[in-house]
Amino acid sequence: LRLHHSGRYHCTGRVVAEWRESEQVTVTVHRVPLSGVSLSAQPPGGQVTLGDSLVLSCTVAVGTGPLSFSWHERHSWAPLGSCPLPGAAPCWGNDSGQYRCRVSDGDREAESDPMNVTVL
User: Fold this and answer.
1) Which segments constitute the Ig-like domain (predicted)?
2) Is the model's pTM score more than 0.85?
């Protein structure tokens, strides 16, 4: 089921030689709340040499899509970048610090625990 399947439903059937219709029922489809947002790094551990690439991956254990992902540095909610699909995004800048991801389902948001990134 998708959210747009919410509505009123009934069935129609033939009983002996006569068509009959059931009472209508209301079906409401709800989103599954976001949970289990986690951030991982490649290379593992979040340590990278200046000039090399670091890829941050954000995953969600439970949630109803479509989901959007954004990456944030330190204590700022100004996004470093965003992606409409789950996956990886490059780490922006050469600063060591804490990075985290935020996931939105359009109604609610959840965030990962911060990850320490060290640029050597």
Assistant:
1) 33-118
2) no
